[in-house]
Design a protein that fits this description.
Layout: H1 2-8, E1 18-29, E2 34-44, E3 51-65, E4 69-83, E5 90-108, E6 111-124, E7 127-141, E8 151-163, E9 169-181, E10 186-197, E11 200-212
Parallel strand pairs: 1-11
Antiparallel strand pairs: 1-2, 2-3, 3-4, 4-5, 5-6, 6-7, 7-8, 8-9, 9-10, 10-11
Length: 213
């Protein structure tokens, strides 16, 4: 994460409609069955310096079959800094989130596929909300036939969010990026994401670090 802040600091842009997310995903293998997931996401309205959202998430996972099928129970804390309508003023919104998810993975030749099904129970200030999410991702190694060390790869995903009441469609995220797998512990990605809402859309630059240990 420190590397990402250094990378971003000379590129300060204010009053921009192009946002930036700096993301860390961590996965700690406890034993052959259990794993600890943890992540930090620092989201900006501009390229950097105008906080949109800080997301902290963790969870305990259990492998149903080696590393291909995993169930997880987790918790997330989300601080959102929302602009008031027609104003430069912000209001802070706190959310506590419990979630359950199932991940399954396959690969077909050079194409690595991941499906993630997530159900969230969201405590947003005094409101309680339920939401379903479906995530479909593809990674394709470029300079090696498999996702081994020192491999460049293309990455793409789509994730749809559905509420259980009121406006059922919440949002959809479409992402395209390039990644580099340094070794079994670290890989990095840089990509473009577009979020589609019921009333518009928003562009994001994603800078991501993955750590598995």
């Amino acid at each position: 994460m420190f590397f990402f802040f250094l990378f971003s600091s000379p590129c300060l842009a204010q009053d921009s409609n192009f946002g930036n997310w700096m993301i860390y995903f961590g996965n700690k293998k406890i034993n052959d069955k259990f794993n600890w997931h943890h992540e930090v996401q620092y989201r900006n309205y501009d390229f950097v310096g105008d906080l949109e959202q800080l997301l902290l998430r963790t969870g305990l996972g259990y492998n149903l079959s080696e590393d291909n099928n995993n169930i997880l129970l987790g918790y997330g804390y989300i601080l959102s800094e929302n602009y008031l309508d027609d104003s430069d003023e912000k209001v802070s919104v706190n959310e506590h989130r419990i979630y359950q998810q199932f991940i399954t993975r396959q690969n077909f030749n050079r194409v690595y596929i991941q499906h993630r099904y997530r159900f969230e129970q969201r405590f947003v200030e005094s409101d309680f909300k339920l939401r379903f999410r479906y995530f479909l991702a593809f990674n394709v190694p470029l300079n090696n036939p498999t996702m081994e060390d020192k491999t460049f790869y293309g990455s793409a995903y789509n994730e749809i969010f559905l509420n259980t009441k009121d406006n059922v469609f919440d949002r959809n995220r479409l992402y395209l990026g390039m990644g580099y797998r340094l070794n079994k512990t670290f890989r990095f990605e840089l990509g473009y994401m577009n979020q589609f809402f019921s009333n518009g859309d928003r562009d994001q630059l994603n800078m991501i670090m993955f750590a598995s240990f």
